[in-house]
Specification:
- This protein folds into 2 domains: 4-234, TIM Barrel (Alpha-Beta Barrel); 239-293, no CATH class.
- Helix 9 links the parallel strand 7 and strand 8.
- Helix 2 packs parallel to helix 3 and helix 11 packs across helix 12 (270-291).
- The strands form 2 sheets. It has an 8-stranded parallel beta barrel, surrounded by 6 helices.
- It contains 12 helices and 10 strands.
- It is α/β, with parallel strands linked by helices.
- The relative contact order is 0.13.
- Magnesium ion binds next to helix 7.
- Substrate binds at residues 72, 130.
């Protein structure tokens, strides 16, 4: 038996401008695993103070049920950052998302500021990695603090900084995506993929979800409610994968003591058993989360 409570699904992580009242309301009913209440790119400069208040009120409302609730503050180089961070720490969301983190020192500074502002221990730091410098320092960023629990890919900013084009298959971004993934897995940090900008292009979106899942991402950041179901399906183990995992564990138990068994004609060693256990842990955590649709 595996323990699904140790695994937090982050298949679908939906951004919304914290200035958008309808979106804040709608999010209470959406089956996404996590929400990012945005104060950064999606909010116009003159709307930022009101968006900050709305995000903090949303966190305090307790109206978002099982969804992991986070606030994305403006970047450290901006005039809004200090006020955003202080307000977010006081509100105590599940995490504070910080854009354009490019070094381990920045992570340590943010963690110290969170402690100074009295952020509850339950509030983690999610670092957005979205610059060439961040890709080249991804491992030290991810390892800089235990409070940093998730790396968030910022593929729009990364493409902009690289002078790259958005193309199907994302070939120009693959080196950066892979470096960030290596850093996440090497340090035991979760990692979610970047957004797909064309909210009307379902086929393109689903193809990018499949690519992200195949590469190893835990989930995808989203910008529209219409993207939630596709991401939830893509980043969950399929029924076939769950059945296969159960079969592998059973074959392993039946062959107790031998270092290698076969299942459906395939060689099964300890490493396959660990992967099967991981799939079942994910499946149980998702089942538990979906049973609690609040
Ligand atoms: C992209 C949008 C501007 C489209 O908005 P709209 O035209 O209003 O969409 P719809 O009419 O289809 O909306 C239908 C209903 O759904 C609600 N809605 C829309 N989007 C969201 C959302 N993100 N979360 C929750 N609810 C949402 C609408 O209010 C409608 O509700 P109702 O009328 O009651 O039925 C819009 O989707 C949007 O603003 N998306 C989020 C944009 C955003 O947050 N961008 C910043 C994050 S992405 C980023 O920064 C990337 C990163 O940094 C990088 O570098 O890559
Ligand atoms: Mg960005």
């Amino acid at each position: 038996m595996t323990d699904g409570t140790l695994f937090r699904p982050r298949r679908s992580v939906l951004y919304m401008p914290a200035s958008n009242e309808r979106a804040l309301e709608k999010a209470k009913t959406l089956p996404c695993d996590a929400l990012i209440l945005d104060l950064e790119d999606a909010v116009a400069p003159d709307a930022k103070p009101a968006a900050r208040d709305a995000a903090c009120a949303a966190v305090g409302s307790g109206a978002y049920g099982r969804r992991e609730l986070t606030i994305r503050v403006n970047g450290a180089e901006t005039e809004w950052h200090a006020d955003d961070l202080a307000a977010a720490c006081a509100a105590g969301p599940d995490a504070i998302v910080v854009p354009k983190v490019s070094s381990a020192d920045e992570v340590r500074t943010l963690v110290a500021a969170m402690a100074e502002h009295g952020a509850p221990e339950s509030t983690s730091l999610w670092a957005m990695v979205e610059t060439p410098v961040a890709m080249l320092h991804a491992e030290e960023i991810a390892a800089a603090s235990d409070r940093l629990t998730v790396l968030v890919m910022g593929t729009n900013d990364l493409a902009k900084e690289l002078y790259a084009e958005h193309v199907p298959g994302r070939q120009p971004l693959l080196t950066g995506l892979s470096l960030a993934l290596l850093a996440a897995r090497a340090t035991g940090t979760a990692i979610v993929d970047g957004v797909y900008n064309d909210v009307k292009d379902t086929d393109g979106f689903l193809a990018e979800c499949r690519q992200g899942r195949q590469m190893g991402f835990d989930g995808k950041t989203l910008i529209h409610p219409g993207q939630v179901d596709g991401a939830n399906r893509a980043f969950a183990p399929s029924p076939e994968a769950v059945e296969d995992a159960r079969g592998i564990l059973q074959a392993w138990e039946e062959g107790a003591g031998s270092g290698v068994v076969t299942y459906r004609g395939r060689m099964i060693e300890n490493l396959h058993v660990e992967s099967a256990q991981r799939i079942l842990t994910m499946h149980e955590a998702i089942t538990a989360l979906e049973a609690d649709q609040g």
